[in-house]
């Protein structure tokens, strides 16, 4: 299948590479020259000519950061008429309302739209083990199934456009909540001098355990959040989208509002581009540094 991948960032590049690995004919596009060059250096067929990239694909995969980027690229930069007859698959994390609005504009351009946000990150994109949550017309889903199965170990059709976006925000809200909850507990354990391994041992045996705790523990203990797969700034974006959708549906806002405020404090303290586990630093400011500061 001829596939255009639009946006070759942290997720876009491994998704494009995985599609190539499955035998698809992939052509990529990226706004910044740096990432475009990096993708070309990794062997991806990619160019800075957006019109050409979209014209050549039967399926257009969007791996852009947010809805604003999608609107700019598809409805401001792209030449009119080039979407006609294409199947667009939107894989970024956006809100249900944003997704429905993009679907509306894509249908008006005489193209088809499927939303397919994903759970998992760079390693899962590379080896095709993402969890793919799709929503949109059944025919569009069937048309894209081969492509989606190349990327995902789990591929599910959830219903109408907006429902996969809602599922993704529900999942990412849990990323923030679980990381915040674990940071609160680990902070107390360290502050009171309780043995961290004993804490983890009991936690692992309990019904409260989640695998993400062990995945993030090392980063928190070492205070090292470099080379993120999923930076803090993206979790802030996603929790803000959750908040917006929750407000609209009358869900009590104060817990997610507080989490968002603490995530923002972490960003303001310089962790925006670091792993989201740096939320631990915003929750436990200062008192938990293990280094001997000589005082
Ligand atoms: P990323 O590394 O920041 O890449 C974002 C991409 O969007 C880049 O190609 C960037 O181009 C492009 N972009 C942003 N604004 C643009 C604009 N106005 N015009 C044109 N291009 C623009 O992000 P990512 O981690 O790949 O994430 C992509 C999407 O997947 C996001 O919605 C994210 O929430 C979601 N997601 C991420 C992960 C993860 O683990 N990273 C997992 C699941 C879902 P430039 O190079 O020019 O900036």
Plain-language structure description:
Helix 4 (67-77) runs parallel beside helix 5, helix 8 (163-191) crosses helix 10 and helix 8 packs across helix 11 (232-248). The protein is built from 13 helices and 8 strands. The longest helix is centred in the middle third of the chain and has 29 residues, at 163-191. It has 295 residues and is an alpha/beta fold. It has 2 domains: 2-160, NAD(P)-binding Rossmann-like Domain (Rossmann fold), CATH 3.40.50.720; 165-294, N-(1-d-carboxylethyl)-l-norvaline Dehydrogenase, domain 2 (Orthogonal Bundle). The protein has helices at residues 12-21, 33-41, 50-56, 67-77, 96-108, 122-127, 138-151, 163-191, 196-205, 211-222, 232-248, 254-271, 279-283, and strands at residues 2-6, 25-29, 59-62, 87-90, 112-115, 118-119, 130-134, 152-157. It starts with a strand and ends in a 12-residue tail after the last helix. Bound molecules: NADP nicotinamide-adenine-dinucleotide phosphate (NAP). Residues 7-12, 30-32, 35, 63-66, 69, 72-73, 92-93, 118, 121, 229-230, 234, 238 line the site of NADP nicotinamide-adenine-dinucleotide phosphate.
């Amino acid at each position: 299948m001829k596939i255009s991948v639009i946006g070759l960032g942290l997720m876009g590049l491994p998704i494009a590479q995985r599609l190539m690995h499955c035998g698809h004919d992939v052509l990529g596009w990226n706004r910044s020259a740096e990432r475009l060059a990096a993708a070309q250096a990794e062997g991806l067929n990619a160019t800075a000519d957006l019109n050409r990239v979209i014209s050549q694909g039967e399926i257009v995969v969007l791996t852009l950061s947010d809805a604003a980027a999608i609107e700019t690229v598809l409805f401001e930069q792209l030449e009119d008429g080039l979407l006609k007859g294409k199947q667009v698959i939107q894989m970024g994390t956006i809100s249900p309302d944003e997704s429905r609005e993009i679907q509306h504009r894509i249908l008006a351009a005489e193209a088809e739209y499927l939303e397919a946000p994903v759970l998992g990150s760079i390693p899962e994109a590379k080896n095709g083990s993402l969890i793919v949550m799709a929503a949109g017309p059944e025919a569009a889903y069937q048309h894209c199934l081969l492509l989606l199965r190349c990327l995902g170990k789990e591929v599910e059709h959830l219903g109408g456009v907006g429902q996969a976006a809602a599922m993704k925000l529900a999942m990412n809200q849990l990323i923030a909540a679980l990381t915040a909850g674990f940071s609160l507990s680990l902070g107390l354990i360290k502050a009171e001098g309780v043995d961290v391994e004993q804490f983890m041992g009991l936690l692992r045996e309990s019904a409260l355990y989640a695998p993400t705790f062990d995945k993030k523990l090392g980063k928190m203990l070492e205070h090292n959040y470099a080379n993120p797969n999923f930076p803090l700034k993206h979790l802030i974006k996603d929790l803000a989208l959750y908040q917006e959708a929750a407000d609209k549906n009358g869900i009590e806002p104060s817990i997610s509002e507080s989490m968002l405020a603490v995530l923002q404090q972490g960003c303001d303290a310089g962790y925006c581009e670091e792993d989201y586990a740096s939320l631990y630093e915003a929750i436990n400011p200062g008192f938990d540094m293990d280094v001997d500061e000589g005082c």
